[in-house]
Amino acid sequence: MSVTVVGSLAFDAVKTPFGSRDRMLGGAATHFSLAASFFDEVRPVGPVGDDFGPAELEVLHGRGIITDDIEHVPGGKTFFWAGEYTHNLNVRETLATDLNVFENFQPKLSPAAQDCDVLFLANIQPDLQFDVRRQCERARFVAMDSMNYWIESARESLERTIRAVDCVILNDEELEQLTGAPNTPSAAKELLGWGLKAVVCKNGKYGAALYSEDGFFAIPAYPLAEVIDPTGAGDSFAGGFVGYIAAQVDEPIGHDLLARAMAYGTALASFNVEEFGTERVARLTSDEITERVADLHRMTSFDLAPLTLRG
Amino acid sequence: MSVTVVGSLAFDAVKTPFGSRDRMLGGAATHFSLAASFFDEVRPVGPVGDDFGPAELEVLHGRGIITDDIEHVPGGKTFFWAGEYTHNLNVRETLATDLNVFENFQPKLSPAAQDCDVLFLANIQPDLQFDVRRQCERARFVAMDSMNYWIESARESLERTIRAVDCVILNDEELEQLTGAPNTPSAAKELLGWGLKAVVCKNGKYGAALYSEDGFFAIPAYPLAEVIDPTGAGDSFAGGFVGYIAAQVDEPIGHDLLARAMAYGTALASFNVEEFGTERVARLTSDEITERVADLHRMTSFDLAPLTLRG
Question: Which residues 116-135 of B have a C-beta within 8 angstroms of A?
Answer without folding.
Answer: none
